[in-house]
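Ticket opened by: R.M.
Priority: normal
Category: complex prediction / small molecule

The reporter submitted a protein together with zinc ion and asked that the result be attached to this ticket for the collaborator who will pick it up next week. Submitted input follows.
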Amino acid sequence: MNEEDKNKIKAYSKQTPLYLSRRKFDSEGALVEVQCLGCKKFKPLEAYSKNKIQIDGIEIKCKQCKQSK
Ligand SMILES: [Zn+2]
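Result attached by the on-call engineer:
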């Protein structure tokens, strides 16, 4: 994750506490896990497809939930 992405997430987190509550960061502030809106589980970024509409470029639901729609 590059500096630009980190700053984007920081700025967005201030405006949207909900966004922050659905994400886990490592000690350097890099995004490591995201909570899926489908199964409510925290999963690593690899478990999600890309979605450019979302703020950090990943889907709000994990691949598993997307498939079982
Ligand atoms: Zn899920």
